Amino acid sequence: MNPLLEFDEVNKYFGETHVLKDVSLDIEDQDVTVVVGPSGSGKSTLLRCANRLEEIQGGEIRLDGESISDPKADINVLRQRIGMVFQSFNLFPHKTALENVTLAPRKVRGLDDDVAEARGEELLDRVGLSAQLNSYPNQLSGGQQQRVAIARALAMDPKVMLFDEVTSALDPELVGEVLEVMRTLADEGMTMMVVTHEMGFAREVGDRIVLMSDGRIVETGEPKQFFESPETDRGKRFLSKIL
Ligand code: ADP
Ligand code: MG
Fold it and tell me: Which structural domain, as residue segments, surrounds residue 148?
């Protein structure tokens, strides 16, 4: 069987700057792949290429064996299949939590309002926000807003969820509730690619750790092995700085 998401010798440049260098990575169905590495190593760019927020200049990215980096691939279909959550929540400020979650299913997938709403309520309940359906973003804490953003991404029934430092902008006391939602999703079998500095989460929830440095994948391993006995000098140095 194909991996669900495949990065095959991916190369990405910003102008002259080579930011992804022959990156190959297979994301298996239902696996949680945690991408770690120093700032500027290319983690966000890698996720953004998978969602076509950035174009690549070499190699191929495939979902279910189908090229998604092909210029002819339908970006709208692709973005329904790959959900993404960012550090900044980017909710629509003048829409309620429920409206934020139901907007794309109504507009893009053409769901009837009542169907979209029933599903939206179910998703907001799943992220612990059934009491906040009608709240506006500015009435919600950062942790609550981020959980709405997760529910909004899930509303398109994606096959893969990408998370880019989704807890980095949160006050420390709000980080746990967001990680808990992600942990539940992982337990339910969602395929996830997670960029995070939360090493506890990486170790407990990750099936695989991928270390990036200077645009390359320099080490991959199971969490226990990666955190206890990294194989590369780069891995050892990374861990000595963060642990
Ligand atoms: P990370 O998420 O690991 O911190 P990024 O993927 O954001 O790293 O960045 C990788 C490299 O690409 C960095 O050198 C960064 O400066 C550069 N970069 C990222 N986005 C852009 C952009 N839009 N234009 C030019 N350079 C960029
Ligand atoms: Mg980043």
Answer: 93-157
Q: Is residue 205 part of a domain?
A: no
Query: 19 CA to middle of ligand 1, Å?
Result: 7
Identify the nearest ligand to the CA of 164 by its number.
2
Ligand 2 midpoint to CA 109 (Å) = 30
pLDDT in tens, 174-212: 999 999 999 999 999 999 999 999 999 999 999 999 999
Q: Which residues surround ligand 2, an ion (CB under 5 A)?
A: 44
Q: Residue by residue, what is the 3-state secondary structure of the chain?
A: CCCCEEEEEEEEEECCEEEEEEEEEEECCCCEEEEECCCCCCHHHHHHHHCCCCCCCEEEEEECCEECCCCCCCHHHHHHHEEEECCCCCCCCCCCHHHHHHHHHHHCCCCCHHHHHHHHHHHHHHCCCHHHCCCCHHHCCHHHHHHHHHHHHHCCCCCEEEEECCCCCCCHHHHHHHHHHHHHHHHCCCEEEEECCCHHHHHHHCCEEEEEECCEEEEEECHHHHHHCCCCHHHHHHHHHHC
